[in-house]
Amino acid sequence: MSEKIVQTAGRDQLGSFAPMFAHLNDDVLFGEVWNDQAIDLKTRCIITVVSLMASGITDSSLAYHLQNAKAHGVTKEEIAAVITHAVMYVGWPKGWAVFRLAKEVWNENAPELTEKDRYQNSIFFPIGEENPYGQFFVGQSYLAPVSTEQIPIFNVTFEPACRNNWHTHHAKSGGGQMLICVGGRGYYQEWGKEAVELTPGTVINIPANVKHWHGAAPDSWFSHLAIEIPGEEGSTEWQEAVSDEDYGKLK
Fold it and tell me: Does the pLDDT value for residue 107 go beyond 90?
């Protein structure tokens, strides 16, 4: 039995907007076609690269499939021969474009794409640097300023299973916070209430003086914009961590 391909990009990026497309992409194309044992994964990767090349697709999707081909055993010599062979049928300009991408992928001096790099390629906003408030998180998080003028807006990114501690945004009047999910899948929970799932496009309005936490699902990176609502005498009180037991109960 060869390695099983699992894909979640459809649901991560379009699950709420186009659920049928997400199903066809994740469950049918990758879940069934890519896992058909009649063709081994290495051969399937080569077929996919040639098909995209023939269609003139030389964007990030082809780069992904070139990376996939390398990961499943296609050598530099083999991909060079494959592209050269395909050029005779699909045209010289397409060959040049694909060779430029392939050289980057098979460059032994170039670092492999990390999970962080792959996730960054799937979202619009930057992930940023390690979160300076990391002491209030379980797991690794990142922070990137989006706007520091008028209303501060930051993109907060969580690695899988990362979440912040319970905390409260205090204010005498006004205040609170708004979260807008921009990538991956995560959760938001107020004290004494059930957790709410967050997917791209989900908006959460957090009133002032409400104890809560938010973070990634166990199997997904997660990013949200954090918008601080102006208020009188505003402050943030960081409290206890979300226990592994409570976090493990989430679906």
Answer: no
